[in-house]
Write the C-alpha cells for this entry.
Amino acid sequence: MAVAEPTGPALTREEADRALARLGAEHEAVESSLLALQDHAGRRLLEGADLTGETRSRWAAAEALIGQLWAYFDAYTAALTTARELRSRRRWPTQGELSELTELLRGSGITLAAHGTSALPAGTAGLTARLSERLSLQELLDRMNGWYAQALDVVVIADSVWSALPARIDLLAAELRRTRSLAHSVGVRPGEHPSGDDLEQITRELTALRAEVIGDPLAFWAGASPSSAPGGGRPDTTRYDRAARALEDVRREVEAVLDVRQDAEQRLMRVRDILSRADRTLNEARQARAEVLSKIAASVVPAVSGPPTALYEQLSAAADHRRHARWHRLSPLLEGLEQRAEEELLRARESLTAVTAPLAVRAELRGRLDAYKAKTARHGLAEDSLLVERYDAARRMLWSAPCDLVAAEGAVLRYQQALAEALAATGAGERATGRRGES
C-alpha cells in the first residue's frame, strides 16, 4: 500500500473554497462527458455490432475503460462530497479542519482497489502489480481524462466511419446496379466484354468493402486520432474512391456503346461512302497511270494498289454485328473502321496525285510554251525564223506521244532563251535608231 506524501502547508479558507469550486466544476464536466459518452450513437452501435479486427480489440479495451471510468468517478464523487461536508460544518473552519481539507483536496487520500486489466490498453497494466493504490483528486481526474479520451477516440472514429462510408457505398452500389442493367441491355456482359468483367469486379469489391467497414470501422481511419488533433483525421475513402473511378470508366464505355447503337447505321453508311470514294479515286489513278505510260516516255510511274479488301471484310462484320445487336463488339470495330477508311481515302488521293504528276508537268510546259508564243506576238517577232523553228520543235515534243518530258523541257527552255535574245536585240536596235534621229 502506498503511503500518502506530505501535502505541504495547510490551505487557507479562501484557497480551500477555490479548490472546491474548481474540483466541483471538473466533476460536473466529467459527469456530463460520461453521460454523453453513455448516450453516444457510436457507442450504442458498437455495443450491438459484430466487430472484427482492430475495432474488436480496441472496443473491448474501451468498454473496460468505460467501466473503470464510472468506478473512478464514483470515488471522485465520494471524496468531493466528503470534502464539501467537511467545509460546510462552519463558516470559519478551524486549523485542524483546514489541515484535513488540505489532505482531502491535495493529498493521496483516495484508495482504489486494483482491477484486472487484461482488456485495458497499453499503459495501464501496472495497476495489477498492486492490490490497491492511493491517488489525489487531481491524479484521479487526470487519469479519468486520459482514459476518457482513449475510449472516446474509439467511439468517435467508429461513428465517423459508419456515418461516412456505408451510405456512400450503398449509393455507389445503386449506381452500379443501374449501370450493370444498362450494360447488359447492350451486350456488355462478363466474359463477353472487358467492361462486363470490370462490373463484376467492382460488385465484389463493394460487397467486401461494406462488410469490412461495418465490421472493422477503425481500420478505415486516416490521420490523427480525434483526441490528439481534433479535425486532423478523416475516414479513409481510398478503396471507395478507386471503385467509384472504375465504375465511372465503365459507365463512359457503356454510354459509348449506347451512342453506337443510336447512330450505327448512319456511321456505317458514311464508312461505305468513304470507301466508295476511295475506290473511285483508285480507279481514276489506274486509268491515269495507263494514260501516263502511253503518253509520257521514260517516266517512272508508281503502281496503284487494289481495293481495300480487308476493310470491306471488316465493314461486312460491322454490319453483321449491327443486325444481331452486338453493340459492344460493333463499338470498337466501327471506331477503327472510320479511321482506317479516312486513311484509305487519303492514300488513294495521294496515289492519284503521284501517277498524274508527269501529266501535270507536261501541262505546265505546254502552258509556258503558249505564254512565250503570246509574248513573241506582242513584240512583233512572230515571223522570226529562229523563234518559229524552236517553237515548232518544242510543240512537236509536247504534243506527241509518248512525250519525252526532259527533252521537251529543254526545248521550251531554248525557245525562252531565243525569245529573250531577240527581245534584247530589238531593244538595242530601237535605242540606236533613237540616237541617230536625235542627231
In short: The mean pLDDT is 81.
